[in-house]
Amino acid sequence: MNLGRRLLHLAQRGVNDALDWVEDASSGRRDPARDELEDYLRAPDSPTGSRFSSSQGRAAPPPPPPPPPPQVQPLAAEYRLVGAPIGSDLETVTRCWRERVRETHPDRFAHDVAAQAHASARLRAVNEAYRKLRGALENG
């Protein structure tokens, strides 16, 4: 913490302690100077932002709105299955699909029955994704 911030912190703490002393705790009355200082410190352009809270029931400023949700590409999973970049044209999707079919074709795993069954299921998923992408890209 640099010296300027430390001095500001100490001054604010001293002011806060002095204002607490002015406040009459038994009757709940508050000093107008304290209210003015709290309004100043709560202002967005003040050096401290909103540090003090009020016991008189003043409404706090509303929280900022949440950020908008990220936009999701409708066929992102299909693009990933086929191996094409998201948003590719039909020619690129077809080229990537052919490469993926060569990689996952069950005939490449004729020596291992379990791997062949896995490749067969994977090839069905890739073909289904390509069918959906082709339909979406041909229809516009």
Could you give a short description of this structure?
This protein has five helices and no strands. Helix content is 57%, strand content 0%. Helix 3 crosses helix 5 (113-139) and helix 4 (90-104) packs antiparallel against helix 5.
Explain what this protein looks like in three dimensions.
The protein folds into 2 domains: about 1-65, no CATH class; about 75-140, Helix Hairpins (Orthogonal Bundle), CATH 1.10.287. The protein has 5 helices and no strands. It has helices spanning about 5-20, 30-40, 75-80, 90-105, 115-140. Helix 3 (about 75-80) packs across helix 5 and helix 4 packs antiparallel against helix 5. The longest helix has 27 residues, at about 115-140. Mean pLDDT is about 80; it is low at about 50-55.
Termini Cα gap = 59 Å
The Cα radius of gyration reads: 33 Å
Number of helices: 5
Q: Can you give the helix content as a percent range?
A: 55-70%
* Class of secondary structure makeup: mainly alpha
Write the H/E string, N to C. Answer: HHHHH
Described by strand count, sense and barrel closure, the largest sheet is: none
Tell me how many strands there are: 0
Classify the beta-strand content into a percent band.
under 5%
Task: Write out key terms for the chains shown.
single chain, mainly alpha, Helix Hairpins
Topology:
Elements: H1 3-22, H2 32-42, H3 76-82, H4 90-104, H5 113-139
